[in-house]
Structure formats: structure tokens, C-alpha cells
Amino acid sequence: MSSTPAAAAPATDALEIRDSRTGKTYSLPITDGTIRANDLLQVKAGAGDVGIRSYDPAFLNTASCRSAITFIDGDAGILRYRGYPIEQLAEKSTFLEVAWLLRHGELPTQEDYQDWVYRITYHTYVHENLRKFLEGFRYDAHPMSMLCSSVAALSSFYPKAHAIHDPEQRNISIVRLIAKLPTLAAFAYRHVKGLPFIYPDNDLTYVENFLSMVARMSESKYEANPVFTRALEVLFILHADHEQNCSTNAVRAVGSSHVDPFSAVAAGIAALYGPLHGGANEAVLHMIKEIGHPKNIPAFIEQVKSGKGESRLMGFGHRVYKSYDPRAKIVKKLADEVFAQVGMDKDLEIALELERIALSDEYFIKRKLYPNVDFYTGLIYRTMAFPTDFFTVLFAVARTAGWLAQWEEMLLDKEQKIARPRQVYTGHPERAYVPTLSERFPRPKKKDSLRK
Ligand code: CMC
């Protein structure tokens, strides 16, 4: 059974505030380092005032939920899933074990794990109509558009998935989504390449099967390069969850309307597609291509710093990490291993030099901008022969595990309701409608126009 976040402990500390408009003082309980935004409603300028609201565009300092899934300490560069350090999981675990852990809160027993792997393996096929649906896309469709649409379309194949309060339905939907994402992703890849679709091979592991569906040609059995298989397994683990990021927030917000999980995950995929989020790994390679040679890096850095052309150093910076992203450290090591196998890449040279220069530049130091997970992942993916526009798809396949754990946690959290933020209205006050257009251009009477 999935776990729910622990309830808030009764508050013993309080924030004392004084409203300069009225001179009144208030005591707001502090729990887990937070005050409740709703407690501000008692702070009123006078009768008829609705009370103070907190204004926080982009949620810079707002906790939207209590969660027991992923812990990040952005200053110390720490990331843990359910308390387990990401470094240990990346070294010793498998993606499916991590997916189980994220959802259930504990590592699976051997029996749990075998059953979980079995069920995921035997739900990898998709309805043939979905295959046809994917075939309807243009030859140059972005695979993230295809993935997003096909996951949304899955919802129509499983109407019972709307019963989100039924644990059995939640269970099978979660299995289906984790099982079918690699199939849909691989089909999107094959469509763009103009290659025949390869059906899942149930003898293979999750990652091997994915690589088989992507790369298999005429061979009867696909044998993946073990260095690539392990690299992808690690990258999937690193991308499996990252607490309340843009796409997870999208899944939770859309899921809070009690729509089915296929639709909620499609919303997460749409959010991930953006270049400031999952699309950054693709953007890093475009950036490296644009730089072209290490000698052009200083000029590029100057351009970034000047803010001209809205260019940013892609793969650098993070809303939460104000030190080296712990995932980036693991990815950099992984890149070394992969490149040791396939040889040094000129773009890796540019990336290393870019990192070296940026980390010693005052602009980046002052703003605490360090490489994030996306800085080196693209280089590894490209070495594995994945096309650039497919990188974010790989991210989405892995993040589905986290989205689903977060979605279920949200559903089981008694404090959660439909996500519905407030606004500060900045438009016109009430004003009377002046019928300008309709007076100048009166519509012909219906009867008249019919007689003509
Ligand atoms: N290159 C140059 N300057 C930057 C960068 C960057 N990559 N990131 C932030 N800054 C500057 C920004 O201009 C601002 O400077 P100033 O204070 O002078 O106005 C300051 O740093 C703070 O930036 P911000 O935009 O307020 O920070 P944010 O927390 O809103 O943005 C971010 C976080 C990840 C969107 C941003 O750092 C960024 O755009 N990075 C590049 C895209 C990227 O790599 N995204 C992947 C994120 S990790 C994977 C994921 O979660 O999807």
C-alpha cells in the first residue's frame, strides 16, 4: 500500500506580526518552518476586508503540500528518495525498484519486487489503435508531442481509470503507465525514423526492452551494450523524482481535479517539454553546437552575462540547488565511463571547458549557478545514438514513476483539495459597456437575409 505524508505536529512556535494599518498584533503558529497562508486571512484592514493574502508568483517560497517522497537540500546538494541517498540508489538499485520505493515508501521485498517486475513486464503492450494513432503524426513530429498526445489518448482506452478512489484502479493504472511509457516512447522514435515498430520483448529487463524497441533491426534477439544499459538505468533512477518541480506540480494540480492519471501524466509531459525544465538537456546540445569550438566559449559566456539574445547557459542553474546538483556529479562520472568506452567527443571537450570557465566566473559564482542534471545527460544520450529531440522523452519515461507516486500521495492527503490559486487583480474597476461596433455595423435581420 502506498504511504501518506505524516500529519503536521501541533505548533508550539509562533510568528508574531503587527498590522501597521490597524495596530493589531497576531500570532501565527509555525509548523515545520511554515505558517499557514490561510492564517493570514484573519489579518484584516477593517470590516469587509477579506484579509491578507500571500503573493508568490512562480511559488518561490510556497509549500503546496506535505510530502514524504523526495528530500532536497539545495544548499548542501543533497537528494534522497524516501530517505535513501541518490548516490546509493544510483550505484546499487534498479529503476523499477526505485519506482516501487517512490510509491510505497519502503524498498520492496524480493517477492514484492518479482511480482512488480512481472506485472510491469506483462503490461508493456499497447492497443493496436494507439499504434495507428501514432502513425498519424507527421514524419517530423517532435517525439514529446507524440508522447504527450498518446499518453492522453491512453485515458480513452481505460475508462475505468477514472475511478481514482478505488485502490485497485489506481494500482493497475500505475502499472500500465510505467509499463507502457517506454513502448509509446520507442514507437514515437521509430515513427520519426520511418522504421517499423518493434513490439516489447518480455524476456528483457525494463531498460533492455526499451533499448530493443528503439534500436532492434533484423536480429531475432536484441542484445544491448551493457555499458549503455547500465547508463540508462542510472539516468532513469536520477530522473525518477525531484519533489515539487514544474511538471510534478502540473500533475498534482491537474490530478487535483480528480481526472484520471493518464490525463494528469499527460499534463506532466507537457510541462516537462519546456526548455526551462526537461527540454534543457536538448537545449544544452543546441548550445554546444552553436558554440562550435572551445575558443568561442569566452565570447558565448560574455553574451550570456550581458543578457543579450535572452541566451542562458543551458544546463546551469536551478531553483532549488544553490550548489552542485548531486545528480550532475553522478552524470559527469557516468559520462566519463561511457566516453571511456566509445572515445572522447569534441562536444564533451566543449562542455568540460564551459563548466570550468563558468565555475570560475564571478557572474555564476555570485548567483550560485552550477551545472544541473541536464548539463551532461544530453552528451551521454547522443553517444548512445539517441536524436537530440528524444532526450526529454527519456526524462519523461523515468519521471513517470515520480509523477505517479506524487499523484497518489496528493489523492490520499486529506488536506488536499482542487488546486485553485488566488490572484491579485490588476485590471480595470467596473465600467459600463459602450456598444460601439454593434451600433456602427448593425447585423441584418435574419428574415431579410433569408429572403435575399
Ligand atoms: N544562465 C545564465 N544566467 C542564469 C541562468 C543560466 N542558466 N540561470 C539563472 N540565471 C541568472 C538569472 O538571469 C538571474 O540573474 P539576475 O539576478 O541578474 O536577474 C539569476 O541567475 C536568478 O535566476 P532566476 O531565473 O530567477 O532563477 P530561477 O530559479 O527562476 O530559474 C532555472 C531556474 C533552472 C529555470 C534557470 O536557472 C535556468 O533557466 N537554467 C537554464 C535551463 C536549465 O538548465 N533548466 C534545467 C533545470 S534542472 C532539470 C529540471 O528540473 O528540469
Describe the structure.
By secondary structure, this protein is mainly α. It folds into two domains: 13-59, no CATH class; 84-419, Citrate Synthase, domain 1 (Orthogonal Bundle), CATH 1.10.580.10. 50% of the residues lie in helices and 5% in strands. The chain has 19 helices and five strands. It has helices at residues 86-92, 95-104, 110-121, 128-135, 143-157, 167-193, 206-215, 226-239, 246-255, 261-273, 280-291, 297-306, 326-342, 346-359, 362-366, 374-383, 391-412, 436-440, 446-451, and strands at residues 13-18, 25-30, 70-73, 78-81, 84-85. The strands form two sheets. It has a three-stranded antiparallel sheet with strand order 3-4-5. The chain has a two-stranded antiparallel ribbon with strand order 1-2. The longest helix has 27 residues, at 167-193. The protein is globular and about 75 Å long. It binds carboxymethyl coenzyme *A.
